[in-house]
Amino acid sequence: MELLNIKQARFLLDVGANRGQFASEILKSGYTGTVVSFEALPHVYQELSASASAFGKRWVVAPRAAVSDVDGDVSFNVTKNFASSSLLQPTDYMLEKGEQLTILETIQVPTRRLDDLVGALGLSEGTFFLKMDVQGAEHMVLAGAPETLKRSVGALLEVHLVDYYEGQPSWKQLDDVMTSNGLRLWDVHPFLRGANGRLEGMDVVYVRSDDVLLP
User: What number of other Cβ atoms are within 10 A of residue 18's Cβ?
Assistant: First the structure.
């Protein structure tokens, strides 16, 4: 919240919103801009929309779609815990973590580029703060969001440091994309470690490098 207040982003783009847990916390903590959430799973989308309705115009839910690099339709892997669902296939390493990470079903979902969704929602003015929790599909989202990235004053990405999904990008690849778009690493929040203590997952925060952050 401190960073959001400093950066004064007009819109927080909540890509991979799930039921809206992150957005709800941000709004309740005092964020004064507008949250725009994106989610693909049908039943989760319904819960997300219900949560957003309580906040009026402060919280907008985009049409249901998986944010990706192309417009179309694609198979989406739904895991038993729902939160680990992804456009990508889970690796054997991930499946060994427990039954809740196994695939419950595979469904067809529409895919949309973030740039196109932003345009369709009429977000033509103001800056963005981009939050992404898309389970290995970060490179797809970023490939479809060059214009959105240009208007982003910061970003929060959930990344895995070991392969949880087939074809997921490395953190270095993601860092290269962010850096090439004028965003620099600002903070790291570890959230997942393996049984041997190795760091496997973390949230990383980026800010635009040409901005003055603090007095």
Answer: 19
Burial class (CB in 10 A: 0-12, 13-18, 19+), 30: exposed
Instruction: Provide the percentage of residues in the chain whose pLDDT is more than 70.
Output: 97
Phi, psi of 209 (to 5 degrees): -70, -20
Q: Is 24 helix (H, G, I), strand (E, B) or coil?
A: helix
Residue 21 host element (H or E): helix 21-28
Structural domain boundaries enclosing 21:
2-69+111-208
Exposed / middle / buried, residue 199 (Cβ in 10 Å: 0-12, 13-18, 19+): middle
Name the strands in the sheet holding 66-68, side by side, starting at the edge strand that comes first in the sequence: 66-68, 103-113, 72-79
Residue 185 within any structural domain of the chain: yes
Q: Give the pLDDT confidence of 27-46 residue by residue, as tens digits.
A: 999 999 999 999 999 999 99
Total number of domains constituting the chain: 1
Q: Per-residue pLDDT tens for 154-201?
A: 999 999 999 999 999 999 999 999 999 999 999 999 999 999 999 999
**CB 49, CB 93: distance < 8 Å:** no
Q: What is the pLDDT of residue 4?
A: 82
Q: What is the arrangement of strands in the sheet containing 59-61, beginning at the earlier edge strand?
A: 59-61, 34-38, 11-15, 128-132, 152-160, 199-208, 183-193
Residue 101 lies in a domain: no
Is 88 among the domain residues? no
Q: In the predicted model, what is the mean pLDDT of the chain?
A: 93
CA dist 128 and 108 (Å) reads 29
